[in-house]
Design a protein that fits this description.
This protein is of the alpha+beta class. It has a domain of about 180 residues: Alpha-Beta Complex (2-enoyl-CoA Hydratase, Chain A, domain 1). It is built from 9 helices and 20 strands. The strands form 4 sheets. Strands 1, 2, 14, 15, 18 and 19 form a 6-stranded mixed β-sheet that branches. About 40% of the residues are buried.
């Protein structure tokens, strides 16, 4: 997708309109205790600027109903980074529902564009309500039930798309400047994150998310790869917005012998190593990436690239290299707060930078619909590289 297609920017007149970025699950440490800072930077009992700002907003903001304590909390956290946010109890419950392989929703994977200000449909699941309604990959979500998104945080928008079975919602999409309304009835959704097939004596595996079930699905695909005696493997991480760090670690062990998967760095600069403990993948491997490849996908890509196991081809990846912690604040809900950044095994920063591919491809990067392998320039380049190995 061309960036200029989504080049318009949302104008924010005050900090109360909350716009978030990509908030996927990679690195979220659920249930951990918040680390206490060794420095006192702000006297929380003496914050005149914040008090006056809130008062001005309450007295003057054109939509008074948006000036709520929850929105103020979300706006404050957004001022720190695009991934930190507040969930009330209901929002957090829906967020937790999105972390399992089965849920009630419309059957799409969503992500942000490079500006982090737009929510894009990255994948429409087979036999899903979204597919039946005619939703297509690449469409942007504008409104839900007539209300513009107050946040583009992926966790937040995902929670809006979920709900009770057989309940309906109307979503306003934008595609190539045209607005389209679709009324979709929620249904039970089963996520299959791995698909595979053989292309020209090479195994092609597509990984769409890092979910709890992804490791078993990937292991089965790798076993099938070994049974078919394929000459090499194409691992497609395009439009993969990330997922669970545990799933990423488990999958990395299918490709990497004991060593470094990534490093994490906290506010003090302290570095910690995340290790692999598997077996090195010995056959030729090519990884496909694009500018929607994010978070856990970048962790795996960076490790495979730095450790010389795979050739990475495509475009520079999204650049989401931050780790969030879920911190309860009873009785209000939870805060999802960025507590660490991560680096590749060669200690390269990922956040806001992304991962540069070994072989860059510019043709076909805007194609969201599935292509015949013979028409997909990424796959054709991968086969060309594999034949040389």
């Amino acid at each position: 997708m061309k960036e200029n297609r989504y080049a318009f920017w949302v104008t924010i007149s005050t900090f109360l309109i909350v716009v978030f970025g990509l908030g996927i699950f990679c690195g979220i440490l659920v249930g951990s205790k918040a680390a206490k800072s060794t420095q006192t930077k702000i006297d929380i009992n003496n914050m005149p600027l914040l008090s006056k700002t809130v008062q001005v907003a309450m007295d003057n903001y054109y939509k008074a109903d948006l000036v709520t304590e929850e929105n103020l909390a979300k706006a404050m956290l957004f001022g720190l980074d695009p991934y930190s946010t507040f969930f009330n109890k209901d929002e957090y419950r829906l967020f937790q529902d999105s972390t399992v392989g089965n849920y009630v929703g419309i059957g799409v994977t969503i992500g942000n564009d490079q500006s982090k200000r737009h929510v894009i449909v990255l994948q429409v699941f087979d036999k899903s309500p979204a597919l039946r309604a005619g939703v297509e990959e690449g469409w942007e979500i504008i409104k839900i039930n007539g209300t513009r998104l107050k946040s583009t945080d992926i966790d937040y928008v995902s929670s809006l798309l979920k709900g009770k079975e057989n309940t309906s919602m109307t979503i306003t999409f934008q595609h190539e400047g045209i607005f389209v309304d679709k009324t979709i009835v929620r249904d039970q959704i089963t996520i299959n994150t791995v698909s595979s097939k053989t292309i020209d004596r090479y195994m092609y595996i597509r990984l769409s998310n890092f979910m709890p079930q992804s490791f078993e699905e990937m292991k089965n695909a790798i076993n099938n790869f070994e049974l078919t005696n394929s000459k090499g493997l194409i691992l497609d991480l395009r439009r993969n917005p990330g997922g669970f760090v545990k799933s990423c670690i488990d999958i990395s062990n299918l490709f990497l012998e004991p060593g470094t998967l990534a490093f994490t760095k906290d506010q003090t600069g302290r570095m910690e190593e995340i290790k692999t403990s598997g077996i090195r993948f010995e056959k030729p491997l090519v990884v496909l990436v694009d500018h929607f490849t994010a978070s856990a996908s970048e962790v795996l890509t960076g490790a495979l690239q730095d450790r010389g196991v795979a050739t990475v081809i495509g475009t520079r990846t999204f650049g989401k290299g931050l780790i969030q912690n879920i911190i309860p604040i009873p009785p209000f809900g939870v805060i999802k707060l960025t507590i660490q950044s991560y680096l590749t095994p060669n200690r390269n920063e990922v956040d806001l930078v992304g991962i540069k591919p070994d072989v860059e491809i510019t043709e076909g990067i805007d194609n969201f619909y599935p292509l015949d392998p013979k028409e997909d320039p990424f796959i054709q380049k991968a086969i060309e590289i594999l034949k040389e190995k």
